[in-house]
Design a protein that fits this description.
five-stranded mixed barrel, globular, about 260 residues, 7 helices, alpha/beta
């Protein structure tokens, strides 16, 4: 047995023991699933893939809010898995854990984010090179640190596809937070000054789980609501279906390059 380092703050008491009381590989049956997987936050895109593209159901994860299906389609002559990760780091990272346990190994996540700079247009793509760890999940997978870095191979795969397609993007840090109603003026200003153009709820956790489980994972964000002190603007970003479908296919191309 190894001693866990004590701290004033429990969130900083990282335990290096890789064995947990509950382990996903003991609960989740490994099965014939695609190696490549898109984590898609856009519920209407997933519904469209089921109804219009004949997506095949593979397996269900289950929580108290219901079932969380894993699907498969054929794309570019290859097998591609995809699933909706829910909202927030704990659920999203846990569903990532279960997809890994089933056998998926390479991931691109695609979703929207708030932007801290109002000059970033709705739909502009942001690639998080690192995530500020202002959430709780990542601290159970990696020792405490201010940021967690993106996987360089996954990042390069995304950049390659976007450059081939002539799609503009910005590389940035992102601020991962648990509390959408506690994004204060002081924090927004401070983290923008630190290099964060985006704010969202999952990236730090995704990057941490991927490092811990030794899988490849990258993320594409697109600019949504402007989280600017004294002038919040929702900007109707959730209704932009064309952007969201295109992003799914860009993520699919990128994940095949990993």
């Amino acid at each position: 047995d190894q001693e866990m380092k004590k701290s004033i703050y429990p969130i900083l008491e990282f335990d290096e023991d890789r064995k947990s009381i509950i382990n996903p590989e003991e609960l989740i049956e490994k099965m014939d699933v695609p190696e490549h997987c898109v984590i898609c936050f856009f519920a209407e895109v997933i519904q469209w893939l089921i109804e219009e593209k004949g997506a095949k159901f593979l397996a269900n994860s289950k929580s108290e809010i219901g079932y969380h299906p894993l699907y498969e389609i054929d794309y570019l002559g290859k097998r591609l898995a995809f699933f909706h990760p829910g909202i927030g780091a704990p659920l999203a990272a846990s569903l990532l854990e279960e997809a890994i346990a089933r056998g998926c190994q390479k991931f691109i996540a695609v979703g929207g984010c708030g932007v801290l700079d109002k000059n970033i247009a709705v739909g502009h793509l942001l690639l998080p090179v690192s995530a500020l760890r202002d959430e709780g999940m990542s601290y159970h997978y990696l020792p405490p640190s201010r940021e967690v870095e993106a996987d360089p191979i996954a990042l390069a795969a995304i950049e390659g596809v976007l450059q081939e397609r002539g799609v503009e993007y910005l590389k940035t840090k992102t601020w991962t937070t648990d509390a959408i109603y506690r994004e204060t003026e002081a924090k927004a200003k401070a983290y923008l000054n630190e290099g964060c153009l985006a704010v969202e709820m999952e990236t730090a956790a995704f990057y941490a789980v991927a490092k811990f489980r030794d899988v490849r994972l990258g993320q594409i964000l697109y600019g949504g609501d402007a989280v600017i002190p004294n002038e919040w603007d929702g900007r109707v970003w959730t209704s932009r279906t064309d952007i969201r479908r295109d992003l799914f296919w860009l993520a699919a191309e990128a994940v095949f390059k990993i």
